[in-house]
Model the fold of this input.
Amino acid sequence: MLQVAFIRQNVDFVKERLAVRNFPELQLVDSIVRLDDQRKKLQLETDTTQSRINAFSKEIGQLMAKGNKEEAEQKKAEVTTLKAALAPIAGQLTEVEEALNATIIRLPNLPNEAVPRGKTPEDNVTIRMGGRRSALPAGAQPHWDLAKKYNLIDFELGNKITGSGFPVYINKGAKLQRALIQYFLDFNTAAGYTEYQPPILVNEASARGTGQLPDKEGQMYYVNEDNLYLIPTAEVPVTNIFRDEILKETQLPVRMTAYTPCFRREAGSYGKDVRGLNRLHQFDKVEIVQLVHPTNSYNVLEEMVLHVERLLQSLDLPYRILRLCGGDMGFTSAMTYDFEVYSAAQEKWLEVSSVSNFEAFQTNRMKIRFKDASGKSQLVHSLNGSSLALPRIVACLLENHQAEGYIALPAPLHKYFGSDRI
RNA sequence: GGAGAGGUGGCAGAGUGGUCUAUUGCGGCAGUCUUGAAAACUGUUGAAGGUUACACUUCCGGGGGUUCGAAUCCCUCCCUCUCCGCCA
Done:
C-alpha cells in the first residue's frame, strides 16, 4: 500500500500516475487526505485528553499514598468526567482510521514514469527480442501431443488422481522437471542469490503481507481446518521472511531464490489457453526476490531482467521482453517486464516470467525497513521475478526443439538431465 | 490427539496494581586508550503517531473487560515450547 505521508505531499502527482493505469476512482486520493486530516485532529484531541487523565491518575496515586482520601476522590470524579468525554472521540478516531485504511488499501501502486499508458496487452511495449526460431520439421506437434508421444506427461491420469490442471510427469518428463529446477537454482545461486526452501503453506499474516489477501482470496487454495493457504508463488513465503524486520543498511541488498510448487485455483478462467501445460492449478517455479535500497531499485530491476534474459538465452528459446502498460500491470507493481517465449507449434507467445519492482508498496504493508545513515528507518524496495516458471518452458522446449524422432535439449541441461535429448 | 509450561524492546531475561517515562546483561553505535586491533572503561541505543524542534500519546502475542490507574487482575482467541501418543 502507498504511504499516506507521500500521498499528502504529492496529491496531483499521485492522481496523474494512477491515471496511467486508468484507475477510475481518483477521488479516493482526496478522500484519503480528508480522512487523514480528520484523523490528525481526533488524534490530537484524544492524546490531549488522555494526557490529562494520566496526570490526574498519577496525582491520585500520590494523594492515596499520603492518605488524603477526600482530594483523591475529587480527582477521581474529574477523571470519570474526562473519560466520559473521551469515549465518543476515541470512537470517532477508530472509525476514521478504519475508513482511512479501507480507502488506502484500494489504491494500486503508482506506475513508474517509464510505464507506457494503455489499457490492454496490445498496449504493452516490446523492449527487445532474442533467441532463434528454429525451423520445425514437417508434421510438428504441439506439446500435449509430444508429451503423449514420448510418454512424458499424463494429463488424464492427473484428472483421475486430483482433477484437471494437475498433470502427472512420468519417466523422462519427471526427470526433465528435476533437471530444470536444479539448473535454474544453480544459475540463480551462481549469480549471488541465496537459496531458500520455504514452507508452501502460509498463514493469513503472510498472505496479507504480499497482498494476496484480501484482494485475491479466491485465487488461493485454503486449508480451512488449519487456516492456512497454499502458496500461489514462492514470492509469498520468501518475501515474508523479512516481514516486520528492520535491516541494517549494510545487509542490503538481500537476494533470495527458491523453488516451490505453486498452487492457483484460476477461478474464472475456463476454456481459453488452458490446454496442456498452458495453465495449471499446480506447477513448479523457481523465483528470485530482492530487497534493496530505494535509490537502487530500478538498477536492480534491469539487472534482474538481464539475469532472466541470460537464462532464457541459455535455453535457446525465442523470446521477447515486454514492458507492461499501466492497464496490464498488477495491482502492486510499479513497473513490470514480462518475458514471453514463442511456442512454435501453437504459434503464440507464452508468458514464462514476470519481473517487477514493487518499490515500497509491499514493504509498507509488511513493514520491511532499514536504518539509513542518519538512523531513521525507511522502507526498502522489493522486487521479484520468475527464474523461471516450468510448464510453459517445458512446452516451448518440446515444441521448438522437436526433431525427427527425438527432442533436442539445450546444452546446459545435458549434465542435469543425463542426456542431450529425449 | 493427551498433559504441562510460556509469549516483555535485535537477543537473553527481571518485573504480579501507582516515579515502569520497563531493571539488568549481551549485541549494536560513538568515544577514551592503542601504531592498529582486541580487552578494559565511558556514553549511547526499541517502534509508531505527533511537532520546525520539544511536549504529548500509543505499543509488554491479538481482542475485550475490571480500575482513578494494568506488562501486572479477569474473560477470550492466537501462537510457541516440553513430555507422552501416533508417524515420514
User: Anything to note?
Assistant: The two ends of chain A are 47 Å apart (CA to CA). The longest helix of chain A spans residues 27-66. The first strand of chain A starts at residue 125 and ends at 130. Chain A has 13 helices and 18 strands.
